[in-house]
Amino acid sequence: MLNPELLHGLRNLSLAARQAAQGFMNGAHASRRHGPGMEFSQYRPYQPGDDLRRLDWRLAARSDRYYLRESEVDTCLTVHLLLDASASMNHRDDNGLTKLDYARLLLAALAYISHQQGDSVGLTILSPAGLRHLPARADTRQLPRIYHALETAEATGHFPDAATLAPLTARRQRSLTVCVSDLYEEESEINALLTRLRAVSGDVLLLHLLANNELKFSYQGAVTFRDLESGRTMQLDADQQRPAYQQQLQQWLKETAQAARRKGFDYHQLSTGEPLDLAIREFLRRRNLSS
After folding, report:
1. What does CATH list as the number for 4-29+76-290?
2. 241-289 pLDDT, tens per residue?
3. Distance CA 278, CA 17 (A)
4. 282 near 208, Cβ under 8 Å?
5. Is there a contact between 216 and 276 (Cβ–Cβ < 8 Å)?
6. Domain residue extents for the chain
């Protein structure tokens, strides 16, 4: 049930999120680690250098062996989900899904997983009309809030300007930021935002979303393309332009990935034609490294 077309066909974001996360929840690390906390978890043999105050002396008296009492310590995170809702996210793939459709499914699944892990999770929808921001919470009503915001999100206009984005970086709060975007930008405004967020909040996972027909340039014959954000049009012969387009695209993707990693982002390229498992796996990996 990680197929994006099937999930989208459910027409129920809450159900789709649960289905998408189902295969990963059993293998995901719990949102706790063993350590000197308050809630008892297990015993472990004593090793030189361990804190003697944690020895179980009664057990030692009975067994003539030394064991430490391990306990569980909460390692819950704050997860901040970002959705690029500029007009380029309306681009539709051959499977009928837009980038926005795919991003909704993915972010809903990540929100569900975060909630199951005990994390505080928030969402910001980035659009030129302003930010739609749900502060991170861990209460039971947070998931319905996030699902509603995602379901009603519309992709319009250009990516927001720096003044609109300023509130996101006004406060320092340690968190894992997950951004889903097609990185369609005019002057590196998306990268500038993520650079500032990394400085004030820490880890950034950038999920670069492209449509399968963009990657393969599956168009044929004479085609008229329209820029979804500027409205400009271009006519060309797709078969004739395919080799040059694919060469330039691969070079841009390579440079984009290198630049993102130089800035300290975790960068992963996604396609709207692929299941959600790659993105979920990378999220869980980054989350566990951040714990």
Report:
1. 3.40.50.410
2. 999 999 999 999 999 999 999 999 999 999 999 999 889 989 988 888 7
3. 15
4. no
5. no
6. 4-29+76-290, 32-74
